[in-house]
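Handout, page 2. Input:
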Amino acid sequence: MFTGLIESVGEVAALETHGDAARITIRDAVVLADARHGDSIAVDGCCLTAVDLTPDTFTADVMAESLARTSLGALEVGCKVNLERALAAGARLGGHLVQGHVDGTGELVSREPSEHWEILRFSLPADLSRYAVEKGSITVQGVSLTVVEVSDGPEPWFSVSLIPTTLADTTLGALAPGDPVNLEVDVLAKYVERMLDHRKGSAND
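Output:
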């Protein structure tokens, strides 16, 4: 479990493809400060398992499902990635509950700069649009954000407003229109929907 508060921006140091899988090596000192073999580390919002560790890198295996359904398949050596260690018991939950299980991908549609913040608009897969609500939580590239506006039109989208700290301390500040992003909707919304579906089914029996 994660919070969506990015601890560090790492760099892809090596990338090996093995047919239907890949091994990604990421260089970063912050998340490796207390990392051990088998620890979970979120990479651009994807929960990965650290299998090989050096003083400044960790390596993770990525299966075909993750490569196909997330932006990890588009990574290259030198790419910057958002990193977060798993939430420790008793730690403050500063963002929201994030599983590290990507629900789908979107693209940056536009950026609207302002004096003290910037509004970013992202495309939203149609099957995820029902989970996005104004003032609700959504995870973009592993970053916990608050939805500003949502459109459920033929091409759904949502917007977020980013403060200078988020722009500077995550990879969101460097995104260009057309860049893919990993999206994870609020898991609580999915559970509520599932329970309501079961109640409707029971009522119709």
